[in-house]
Amino acid sequence: MKRISTVIWLVLSLGWMKSVYAEPVELQVPGPEDTCPVCGMFVAKYPEWIATVRYKDGHAHHFDGAKDLFKYLLDLPKWAPNHQAGEIEVIGVTEYYGLTRIDARKAFYVIGSDVLGPMGHELIPLETKEDAEEYLRDHKGLSIVLFNDITLEQLQGLDAGVFE
Fold this sequence. Notes:
This protein has helices spanning 2-20, 66-74, 76-79, 129-138, 152-160; strands at 51-55, 60-63, 88-94, 101-103, 108-111, 116-117, 120-121, 124-126, 143-146. The chain has 5 helices and 9 strands, in the order αββααββββββαβα. The strands form 3 sheets. It has a 4-stranded antiparallel beta sheet with strand order 2-1-3-4. A 3-stranded antiparallel beta sheet has the order 8-5-9, with helices on one face. The protein has a two-stranded antiparallel ribbon with strand order 6-7. It has one domain.
């Protein structure tokens, strides 16, 4: 009986852990000619910052960082007039510490740190809240935000070097 309860506890624990951590996502790697639809930079030059939106039809847009990804998502009619939010299948960002692609909707983002990305101040994607808190302390970040809490004003602040 003790063995069965241990197995049940282990299974439940693993299920809980899976829901806490942002899961890795499988996304195509941008080619040398793929450019960010927001800024026009060649994305493949910055593999540690890549973010990707993949649509249900398989079409993908790649970005040179989470900041441009969110500019795109927050003004889809401007950056992708032929696409609708409901057509998006997966949104992935490159996790800062592990350099793995994770689900952008489950990531924690640090704003206002001393680390710069290809386009200057960036949203820094992290897999866990604990990693985000550690990063915040180590890199003088100002706040941790979740996917649905990111605003265009915050992104404009990052561009201007003014953080809220």
